[in-house]
Specification:
Layout: E1 21-28, E2 37-40, E3 43-46, H1 48-63, E4 67-74, E5 78-85, H2 110-129, E6 142-146, H3 149-161, H4 183-190
Helix pairs in contact: 1-2, 3-4
Length: 194
């Protein structure tokens, strides 16, 4: 069997990713290539491709009224952001998904919104680079359901401090920090109050 078809989903089985609440997402570039700019004096300096990514992220909330955006950063080869789904208006409750198969995005869900974001970025960037059909992003992304206000505050701080910690970032191809992963990110979830 092809490796592509043996990938396991990171989605929570049975969880409705249209549920009101905040989601922390990380999306990496294909092969973790640094397409979007560079870190200078612990601050991200976006290039024209990074500006496209930033613009498309902000458009996400404009195109989808049920979505609001929180902390966000474009890094040289990935993004971090918090995307929230607002509670539905009274009388307009969502129906539980009953016909979609596991692993396929449902309209208005986190996977479908992030898929549209990735597609829009890829199309615009490939047009700018004159590289039709070239992949920009890794196939999947990392997502975490934010479960408390204190966790939300820690995620916001992590996102804000990400450029200053680039030298130790596990996504940095020239990483000089902990090769086992992102210690600051793990601390967010270790301190979770359940």
């Amino acid at each position: 069997m092809n490796e592509r078809h043996r990938r396991r989903s990171i989605r929570l089985r049975g969880y409705d990713y249209r549920e009101a609440g905040a989601y922390f997402v990380t999306i990496c570039t294909a092969n973790r290539e640094c397409f979007f700019g560079e870190i200078v004096d612990e601050a991200m300096q976006l290039n024209r491709l990074g500006e496209i990514v930033q613009d498309e992220w902000h458009r996400t909330a404009i195109l989808r009224p049920q979505v609001s955006l929180d902390a966000f950063v474009v890094m040289p080869n990935h993004i971090h952001g918090i995307i929230s789904f607002d509670a539905q208006e009274e009388g307009k409750a969502r129906l539980a998904p009953t016909t979609a198969r596991f692993g396929y995005p449902i309209a208005g869900s986190l996977p479908s919104i992030l898929g549209a974001f990735k597609s829009a970025c890829t199309n615009r960037i490939n047009l700018a680079r004159q590289t039709p059909g070239l992949p920009l992003w890794q196939r999947n992304y990392y997502e975490h359901v934010v479960r408390s206000e204190s966790e939300l505050a820690r995620v916001r701080e992590y996102i804000a401090m990400n450029p200053a910690r680039w030298e130790e970032d596990s996504e940095n191809p020239n990483q000089i920090g902990n090769p086992q992963g992102d210690v600051a990110l793990q601390k967010i979830f270790d301190e979770r109050v359940v």
